[in-house]
Amino acid sequence: MLVLGIESSCDETAAAVVEGGRRIISSIVASQVEVHHPYGGVVPELASRKHIEVISQVVRQALAEAGAGDRDIRAVAATCGPGLIGSLLVGFCFAKAFAFARGLPFLAVDHLEGHLESVQLMDDPPDYPLVALLASGGHTEIYHLPSRGVYRLLGRTRDDAVGEAYDKVAKMLGLGYPGGPVIDRLACEAGGDAVAFPRPFLNKEEFDFSFSGIKTAVGRYLAKCGRPVEQVRSQVAAGFQQAVLEVLVHKIVNAARLHGCTRLAVVGGVAANRGLRQSLAERCRSLNLKAWFPPLELCGDNAAMVAAVAHHRIALGGATALSADVYSRRPRRI
Ligand code: KG4
Ligand code: ZN
């Protein structure tokens, strides 16, 4: 069964065709990075306009690359939230219209559930139970998944999301948007010369996070160090990344141990982080745990994860009414 997925919650317009909830036949992602780069963050009004401009073309391309005609598609799914309302509405309404015109079932999919499903699209997906860290520009949360579709929230950020902290620190360092990839690169190249920053909430039984303090500490350091930003960029990037990774690795490993899970997954845009992949893999090796990271194209926002969630919901008889709406914040815990 082929499902068409559509994603437009933030600054990527994406469409994908997925077979059987597992096999990606096509996956198109049109990034708006160029549009938002000069502003150091996503500008919501510009994001919605860009989604409207490209959505038809992106969907057409996904169908063409899949070699799928309208008659081959059995259901249409779109992200319903959380995200930017104006952006969400573009993909959501497009998907509803596409489904209505063809008499297909329509499914609304939570963006976070999509990210958590992304590891299941790997060649060698993890089984359940599983502990997952969802780390993106909007969210930082740890879940225990005892079985497919069951998500128990163990902890979340109390302020900034980790990707958001990366983006804000990059802005302070004059590195543009998005900040994650460039800080990651600088940090990995910096050698041993890292500035020491605090590790908030680094205690054992607590799975909540806080990243705004590290960001403030970076700002304070830059104001006081008495050197031009260009001269301290690498050391600051390395110190910031070290502090963040120590907290992330410590928490997810402890969550897994507390729940007796040997399987860990990291999903969301920050899962692309090279330093995180390395240090978690090392820690897992020493503790006999195994960590899954999706391939880079499935870490960031994409529509294949949306189609995959929808497939499993259809198999359970689920469909969403066309009167359903989008939401900017999750109305309930998934
Ligand atoms: O999941 P995603 O594409 O969109 C959201 O749902 O937010 O995540 C985007 C976030 C951005 O904050 C970006 O800076 C961050 O993921 N990111 C990274 C890396 N690549 C992207 N953060 C750290 N290291 C990276 N290599
Ligand atoms: Zn996302």
How does the SSE layout of this entry go?
Blueprint: E1 2-7, E2 12-19, E3 23-31, H1 33-36, H2 44-66, E4 73-81, H3 85-102, E5 106-110, H4 111-117, E6 130-135, E7 140-145, E8 152-156, H5 162-172, H6 179-189, H7 212-224, H8 229-258, E9 263-267, H9 274-287, E10 290-292, H10 296-299, H11 304-315
Parallel strand pairs: 1-4, 4-5, 6-9, 9-10
Antiparallel strand pairs: 1-2, 2-3, 6-7, 7-8
Helix pairs in contact: 2-3, 4-11, 5-6, 5-7, 5-8, 6-8, 7-8, 8-9
Give a short synopsis of this structure.
This protein is α/β, with parallel strands linked by helices. It is built from eleven helices and ten strands.
Q: What low-confidence regions span 5 or more consecutive residues with pLDDT below 50? A: none
Give the distinct bound molecules.
Answer: 5'-O-[(R)-(carboxyoxy)(hydroxy)phosphoryl]adenosine, zinc ion
Number of extended strands? 10
Q: How does the overall form come out from the CA principal axes?
A: globular
The CATH superfamily of the largest domain is ATPase, nucleotide binding domain
Helix content estimate = 40-55%
Helix-strand sequence: EEEHHEHEHEEEHHHHEHEHH
How many domains? The number is 2
